[in-house]
Amino acid sequence: MIWKFIKEKQSWLLFILFLLALNLVVAALDDTIAFTSVLYTVFLSLLFCLLYLFWRYQKETAFYKTLTERDDNLDLSGIAVPESPFEEIVAESLRQQTLLLKEELLTNTVALEQEKDDLLSWIHEVKTPMTTLRLLIDRIDDKEMRGNLTYEWLRIHHLLDQQLHSKRLPFMQNDLYVEKVSLEDILYDEIRTLQTWCIQKGIGFEVELSETAVLTDSKWLAFIIRQLLTNAVKYSEKADIVITSSRKDEQIILQIRDFGIGMEKKDLPRIFDKGFTSTANHQNQHATGMGLYLAKKAANTLHITMEVDSLPQKGTAFTLTFPRKNDFVHLLSNASM
Question: SS3 of 289, please?
């Protein structure tokens, strides 16, 4: 801050030094003026100038220090009281800008909440005709047509499910209910939903669960597994998907491995980024890049570590490492806030 203060006063300091130097030059050229007396006066002037600068530094920088140290938010309570007319101009401008931003934030928040409520209402309304449509599809005798229609139905169902959970995700802490959840029940429910699509693609499931129960939120865990299974089925063909569970260091580990097209090594650090659809499969117009992003966000809130291992044409393995029981003290305390 001191260097910024000196830079701010640079022109005045240079002007003062110029005047003092001018006095010395005049005294040196004019024999009627005692040079020693002028030099003594210049020394005292410099001394008092430094003392004055020190005092003004303490006085003038207090307001600006509070500006640089404050958090980047709309709270101006921590700003020091303006001491000069210019500081009052800055403070008043900040107050007016903050007031406008608060009004805009309130307006946008209300509009966003209304949009979210409308979208959630629309999604729930669509579920009824979607259920009816599924019943009608199941009554079609033509297996090929039934399979194709089921695939399209699953795509719509999956996209609606992503939209529903993406809107709920920011408020996920308020919706948590941690309990002992059966991995087997959740996995088989999700597999049954994908059954027709899997039959169409010649995909089977090999499930070996040495650990069958975990402490977590069943609804959000089902959403995470749904994204991983859908991703595995989407990029596999005529190959089994292997699902295993184990225990290591008091933590339960669930792995979902497919033997599909896999991913490039350079893509792995980015697969959980919002909107990323991989470079190897970039021409796929149906990919939204939202499934893994939402699954990762939900897993983080549940304190579930999600890792991925993949090789091109070798398949992909997603590993979910569930937290220890003691870790849920922190999770439950956050959920209750």
Answer: coil
